[in-house]
Amino acid sequence: MLSYDNAVAVNGQTPASPTNISGARTAVPTTSPKVTRVPVPAVSGTSDVHGQAMNGVQTNGQVAPVEHHIWLVTGPAGCGKSTVAKYLAVSLNLPYIEGDEYHPKANVEKMSNGIPLTDADRWDWLTLLREESLRLINAGHAGVVLTCSALKKKYRDVIRVAPYFVPNLHLHFIYLSAPEEVLLRRVAARPNHFMPPSMVASQLSILEPPSEQEVDVISIDVTRPIEQVEAEALDRVLRTMDRVRQ
Ligand SMILES: Nc1ncnc2c1ncn2[C@@H]1O[C@H](COP(=O)(O)OP(=O)(O)OP(=O)(O)O)[C@@H](O)[C@H]1O
Ligand SMILES: O=C(O)[C@H](O)[C@@H](O)[C@H](O)[C@H](O)CO
């Protein structure tokens, strides 16, 4: 069941909710969550040096509205979410939220032991990722880059609620697709990661690849070398931002 237990700050104000009253949080990051913003030059015209508002005075003297974006890099284990998300975050000078670091300890333990998560295991985690994205945007960032497997449509729909909370907020999924053998090879070759290769099959068994009706999804074939994947991802992001601005 969807949970709205955790209140989201809207324009700096936190609405009353059962969570505010009890002070309890249902899910907390297992480790120090990775919310990083790498101080490199922004891609021209996308953000200022603080990675903040992408507005500015247009040639007609009018101030353009601030457009906010959540770039959610999605797909099954090993598809390259973290790699691509870090690249986008650096290129766009935006904070990066590593979804895996927000799983409760029990989820990580399950996955480490080769036990797939259930819907119930994922609900609070998904809500937490949505909240954390909104928190950073409400704190003044123009946008965020977020990784989250979001394997089913109903998981993506949990995040799709985000734009209700912030004016001019746009959510985009960047879905990385690769066949099982490629995922297996990449997961098996990756050192020091909690996810065993045996979990790839279960990820694919529940995966609902985004349909054409999910018009907020950019799909990218990631069987190609990483440089090509990153270049395509950035190009599609920049073109999407242009479209939104027009
Ligand atoms: N296009 C690519 N070509 C070759 N190797 C890649 C490519 N993309 C990612 N990799 C490598 O595959 C491995 C998995 O990538 P990464 O950790 O980014 O995936 P992920 O989707 O974040 O995985 P998980 O969700 O399981 O954490 C890494 O070792 C990474 O360097
Ligand atoms: O929904 C899930 O089953 C999980 O989020 C997984 O996708 C892992 O966290 C990730 O892939 C790590 O390897």
TrEMBL record:
The keyword Calcium does not apply. GO terms for biological process: carbohydrate metabolic process. Pathway: Carbohydrate acid metabolism; D-gluconate degradation. The keyword Lipid metabolism does not apply. One of its GO terms (molecular function) is gluconokinase activity. It catalyses: D-gluconate + ATP = 6-phospho-D-gluconate + ADP + H(+). Keywords: ATP-binding, Kinase, Nucleotide-binding, Transferase. Its EC number is 2.7.1.12. GO terms for cellular component: cytoplasm. Residues 12-40 are annotated as: Disordered. It holds the Pfam family AAA_18. Signal peptide: none annotated. Residues 12-34 have a biased composition (Polar residues). Belongs to the gluconokinase GntK/GntV family. This is Gluconokinase. It comes from Coniochaeta pulveracea. The lineage of its organism: Eukaryota, Fungi, Dikarya, Ascomycota, Pezizomycotina.
